[in-house]
């Protein structure tokens, strides 16, 4: 293995061993506190443009299997690991983490003090970083010119054409902003027919599919980058029972006039406690996001706040007061992390079953 470096925007340099892609890789450095689930994290499209620091010290010990991919590709820009296991042991393992990254051209720096990196991120916030083989000065200049931080990555990860999955239950249009397969699985396993649609699908295009409900998926980047789509999202949610998850939640809130802001270092992990306001119950949730809906920007004439984060009181869920629209910031589909909040999918499907008459409530 060759020597490599993680260089942060602050100028801090961490030396380690480089595997995967041997040239420079740039992204926004974030950290994830999950103890397992590295394969799901590698393939979650919401990590596009990011370098993920794994907080759990041992990664790769159970290898890579055929079942845990959340999408067909690895989307992250790079991985930073304390202790990478090169000889995995698990009956389902088909290859090692290092082989998987090498085959997919993703840079990985291992043998670094990830605790020190996490401390930097917690203090300065998520920031630009490079995984590199050389400490060439010209590389550092590219921090200033990185397009990744200015454009929407949703376009890159979304399907280009609609894709259908047959089922005998309700028909759901699933907006693909970079959806995780577990989200599709939750619907298909419940018997739904699912039509996955590109991120830029308009209201008339959704109407022509005649769905019973619409789901707005997770996805990478700043939700504000999808501003041109907000009027369409508003019309769609006024017409069809809707569920928004993570980026989908943020977009629905924006469409109804709320604002989003960026947390200092986000929530990424498998044990984020979230309080359900109505029942007072605390659910342990899977999370992966930087942005949140700004609480003061929510019009409480339009939305009830349904969930809040126990650690920082940030908004974790909304419910429209009149229309069947529900949104959650966390990931009920889990993978990785606990599936305690899977009931949100069941509730959505029950809402659809009870909402038949609403179809004609608002017409255009
Ligand atoms: N997982 C997601 O959908 C993330 C949403 C958004 N990209 C954020 O970071 O907040």
UniProtKB/TrEMBL annotation:
<feature type="binding site">
    <location>
        <position position="221"/>
    </location>
    <ligand>
        <name>L-glutamine</name>
    </ligand>
</feature>
<keyword id="KW-0315">Glutamine amidotransferase</keyword>
<dbReference type="InterPro" id="IPR035686">
    <property type="entry name" value="CPSase_GATase1"/>
</dbReference>
<feature type="active site">
    <location>
        <position position="331"/>
    </location>
</feature>
<protein>
    <recommendedName>
        <fullName>Carbamoyl phosphate synthase small chain</fullName>
        <ecNumber>6.3.5.5</ecNumber>
    </recommendedName>
</protein>
<keyword id="KW-0055">Arginine biosynthesis</keyword>
<keyword id="KW-0665">Pyrimidine biosynthesis</keyword>
<dbReference type="Pfam" id="PF00117">
    <property type="entry name" value="GATase"/>
</dbReference>
<keyword id="KW-0436">Ligase</keyword>
<feature type="active site" description="Nucleophile">
    <location>
        <position position="246"/>
    </location>
</feature>
<keyword id="KW-0067">ATP-binding</keyword>
<feature type="region of interest" description="CPSase">
    <location>
        <begin position="1"/>
        <end position="170"/>
    </location>
</feature>
<dbReference type="InterPro" id="IPR029062">
    <property type="entry name" value="Class_I_gatase-like"/>
</dbReference>
<feature type="binding site">
    <location>
        <position position="46"/>
    </location>
    <ligand>
        <name>L-glutamine</name>
    </ligand>
</feature>
<dbReference type="InterPro" id="IPR002474">
    <property type="entry name" value="CarbamoylP_synth_ssu_N"/>
</dbReference>
<comment type="similarity">
    <text>Belongs to the CarA family.</text>
</comment>
<comment type="subunit">
    <text>Composed of two chains; the small (or glutamine) chain promotes the hydrolysis of glutamine to ammonia, which is used by the large (or ammonia) chain to synthesize carbamoyl phosphate. Tetramer of heterodimers (alpha,beta)4.</text>
</comment>
<keyword id="KW-0028">Amino-acid biosynthesis</keyword>
<feature type="active site">
    <location>
        <position position="333"/>
    </location>
</feature>
<dbReference type="GO" id="GO:0004088">
    <property type="term" value="F:carbamoyl-phosphate synthase (glutamine-hydrolyzing) activity"/>
</dbReference>
<feature type="domain" description="Carbamoyl-phosphate synthase small subunit N-terminal">
    <location>
        <begin position="2"/>
        <end position="132"/>
    </location>
</feature>
<keyword id="KW-0547">Nucleotide-binding</keyword>
<feature type="binding site">
    <location>
        <position position="291"/>
    </location>
    <ligand>
        <name>L-glutamine</name>
    </ligand>
</feature>
<dbReference type="Pfam" id="PF00988">
    <property type="entry name" value="CPSase_sm_chain"/>
</dbReference>
<dbReference type="InterPro" id="IPR050472">
    <property type="entry name" value="Anth_synth/Amidotransfase"/>
</dbReference>
<dbReference type="InterPro" id="IPR036480">
    <property type="entry name" value="CarbP_synth_ssu_N_sf"/>
</dbReference>
<comment type="pathway">
    <text>Pyrimidine metabolism; UMP biosynthesis via de novo pathway; (S)-dihydroorotate from bicarbonate: step 1/3.</text>
</comment>
<dbReference type="InterPro" id="IPR017926">
    <property type="entry name" value="GATASE"/>
</dbReference>
<feature type="binding site">
    <location>
        <position position="250"/>
    </location>
    <ligand>
        <name>L-glutamine</name>
    </ligand>
</feature>
<feature type="binding site">
    <location>
        <position position="247"/>
    </location>
    <ligand>
        <name>L-glutamine</name>
    </ligand>
</feature>
<comment type="pathway">
    <text>Amino-acid biosynthesis; L-arginine biosynthesis; carbamoyl phosphate from bicarbonate: step 1/1.</text>
</comment>
<feature type="binding site">
    <location>
        <position position="219"/>
    </location>
    <ligand>
        <name>L-glutamine</name>
    </ligand>
</feature>
<dbReference type="InterPro" id="IPR006274">
    <property type="entry name" value="CarbamoylP_synth_ssu"/>
</dbReference>
<feature type="binding site">
    <location>
        <position position="288"/>
    </location>
    <ligand>
        <name>L-glutamine</name>
    </ligand>
</feature>
<comment type="function">
    <text>Small subunit of the glutamine-dependent carbamoyl phosphate synthetase (CPSase). CPSase catalyzes the formation of carbamoyl phosphate from the ammonia moiety of glutamine, carbonate, and phosphate donated by ATP, constituting the first step of 2 biosynthetic pathways, one leading to arginine and/or urea and the other to pyrimidine nucleotides. The small subunit (glutamine amidotransferase) binds and cleaves glutamine to supply the large subunit with the substrate ammonia.</text>
</comment>
